[in-house]
Specification:
Layout: H1 10-22, H2 33-50, H3 56-69, H4 91-97, H5 105-120, H6 127-132, H7 134-148, E1 152-154, E2 157-161, E3 168-170, E4 172-176, E5 179-183
Helix pairs in contact: 1-2, 2-3, 3-5, 5-7
């Protein structure tokens, strides 16, 4: 097999062979969360290219766990940073994930990770991708629509359920150097 960026590499081929022979994969000592996500995406893409199935949900759960278990370094504040779920995701991850089939669980996890930033920040991390990568835009819209069903008022402030962690997140419109400028307010939502 010839190497293909973000699909066929020595690592992804080894993971595919592990899956075929053992029915599981061991990622080894990949320390940075970004590298763990990259390895999982490469594995899913080579498996998809070869028509090998059965690990899609497992890999989506693995990526979700990497995101949740590795909050950004600045996450010790009262309000979550808008990039909490996307801190270790890259544009290459988004591009790689959106090349999978439309209902692939990994695509749904990547879109769900971007919901908080999209709702909280007009200049969220993947703004460019929402404008240029049609598949990602569609995935994100589905994830946002599902998330909006969880919006509720708590102590007169709106919050929504984070689609990855299931935790409620305060809906904040703008932040300047960590402080809140303006919160969304729905006066007749009681």
């Amino acid at each position: 097999m010839a190497e293909i960026d973000d699909v066929v590499s020595i690592r992804s081929f080894e993971l595919l062979v592990q899956w075929l022979y053992l029915g599981r994969v061991v990622f080894g000592k990949l320390t940075p969360p970004e590298d763990r996500i990259t390895a999982a995406l490469e594995f899913v893409r080579i498996a998809d290219m070869c028509g090998v199935t059965g690990m899609e949900t497992l890999m989506a759960e693995y990526i979700k766990a990497v995101i949740i278990d590795n909050p950004p370094p600045d996450s010790k504040t009262f309000l979550r940073a808008a990039n909490t779920n996307t801190y270790y995701l890259t544009s290459k991850h988004i591009a790689s994930g959106t090349s999978l089939s439309e209902e692939h669980p990994v695509r749904r996890v990547l879109a769900a990770a971007a919901v908080e930033g999209y709702l909280q920040d007009d200049n969220h991390k993947f703004l460019k991708e929402t404008q240029e990568v049609t598949n990602f835009s569609a995935d994100l819209l589905k994830a946002v629509k599902a998330t909006l069903g969880s919006v509720e008022h708590h102590y007169d402030q709106p919050r929504f359920k984070d689609p990855l962690s299931g935790e409620y997140v305060w809906l904040v419109k703008k932040r300047i150097e960590g402080s809140i400028l303006l919160r969304f307010h729905f006066p007749n939502a009681y």
